């Protein structure tokens, strides 16, 4: 019985206050942003307070994106947050885009903030579980996007939800303190029905690189090899400082790391032509053009339009990109057999190749072969920023050395080339090019050799592909 003088609350209020009390230790905040205001946290969903969900106009019949930021020096959101929110709303106008605010925990010393990912993950999981318990909101409609430390917080959240969430996208998950961590304390493939990961800044030794090096999802994509991104070098740095002053210097440190987010934004905004990534055993094999196959799920789309392929082992995938949006390029494998009567070997030789197609051309694409020897076949990767259409003709030039060499002056070395084989990654088409004169003589420092599409009917499947 109630003590004399105690106030008896009506049971409804009492149950509500207990519910709110259950969640009172959740420090992370959950802001439902709107397409009209992608930059401000104007309305918060409060775990345990059902009315907050109605107040913020949460759409129960649509999918929900939860954006989880990473470590921050300033204690403020970085400039990419509203950009990602806007792109998600542009692609899925009826969805709910929730920004998870753990800024106070994210602005500590890095190891402290890294440790807090466990608590943030717990907060997010408790919020998601509450949404399911309270409103029957299906977890199959939930897609978590975590950047840097936020990717691991997303992984921990995914491992603690009652049912699996549909998808987690890891945007360059943080490396230090996580490279050698066990699966439960970092992002791993078990954390959602599907986990896709972009690795964009893995430069350095494992455990010391800003971005995690090992694969931690079902599909792990390493743009430009994953180490470092084009347009993020020191020359760019000087240009940015000249244009925008020193205020954006932190952008330079983060350039490659943050590229993961901009690649994903690009996939949301340019859905009709996604960038293709290719499964490969190593960066080196990819650079030789040996991995441009789309058979048996060997290629996939980068970003939002990815095909949800779950293999037993994580697949590492590679692609090249441009230095700015739109990032898509067109990949080609080129195979050349160098013939000659005298055996000779040259190392680190510079060449240029020009491709001419039905739509456009891409001229003087530089490439270097580590070695060129007589009667050997070499395969290498080149890529164009423009879609040149169907290939019709190509030119190959062997460049002279940048320094003067007596031997080349007396007689310039050369090889005979009959055919050049080209495979286009994006269309999966293979084309064989023949010399106009049966055999082309490619001489160092001399005019380029020209090859046109062969019309030889005998060039069937057995032609060396």
TrEMBL record:
One of its GO terms (cellular component) is chylomicron. One of its GO terms (molecular function) is heparin binding. Tyrosine nitration after lipopolysaccharide (LPS) challenge down-regulates the lipase activity. Ca(2+) binds at residues 186, 191. The keyword S-adenosyl-L-methionine does not apply. InterPro entries: AB_hydrolase_fold, Lipase, Lipase_LIPH, Lipase_N, Lipo_Lipase, PLAT/LH2_dom, PLAT/LH2_dom_sf, TAG_lipase. It comes from the Eukaryota. It is found in: Cell membrane; Secreted; Secreted, Extracellular space, Extracellular matrix. It is a peripheral membrane protein. It catalyses: 1,2,3-tributanoylglycerol + H2O = dibutanoylglycerol + butanoate + H(+); 1,2-dihexadecanoyl-sn-glycero-3-phosphocholine + H2O = hexadecanoyl-sn-glycero-3-phosphocholine + hexadecanoate + H(+); 1,2-di-(9Z-octadecenoyl)-sn-glycero-3-phosphocholine + H2O = (9Z-octadecenoyl)-sn-glycero-3-phosphocholine + (9Z)-octadecenoate + H(+); a 1,2-diacyl-sn-glycero-3-phosphocholine + H2O = a 2-acyl-sn-glycero-3-phosphocholine + a fatty acid + H(+). GO terms for biological process: triglyceride catabolic process; very-low-density lipoprotein particle remodeling. The keyword Lipid metabolism applies. The active site is at 148 (nucleophile), 172 (charge relay system), 257 (charge relay system). Keywords: Calcium, Cell membrane, Chylomicron, Disulfide bond, Extracellular matrix, Glycoprotein, Heparin-binding, Hydrolase, Lipid degradation, Lipid metabolism, Membrane, Metal-binding, Nitration, Secreted, Signal, VLDL. Its EC number is 3.1.1.34. SUPFAM superfamilies: alpha/beta-Hydrolases, Lipase/lipooxygenase domain (PLAT/LH2 domain). Residues 330-453 form the PLAT domain. Homodimer. Interacts with GPIHBP1 with 1:1 stoichiometry. Interacts with APOC2; the interaction activates LPL activity in the presence of lipids. Interaction with heparan sulfate proteoglycans is required to protect LPL against loss of activity. Associates with lipoprotein particles in blood plasma. Interacts with LMF1 and SEL1L; interaction with SEL1L is required to prevent aggregation of newly synthesized LPL in the endoplasmic reticulum (ER), and for normal export of LPL from the ER to the extracellular space. Key enzyme in triglyceride metabolism. Catalyzes the hydrolysis of triglycerides from circulating chylomicrons and very low density lipoproteins (VLDL), and thereby plays an important role in lipid clearance from the blood stream, lipid utilization and storage. Mediates margination of triglyceride-rich lipoprotein particles in capillaries. Recruited to its site of action on the luminal surface of vascular endothelium by binding to GPIHBP1 and cell surface heparan sulfate proteoglycans. Belongs to the AB hydrolase superfamily. Lipase family. This is Lipoprotein lipase. The gene is LPL.
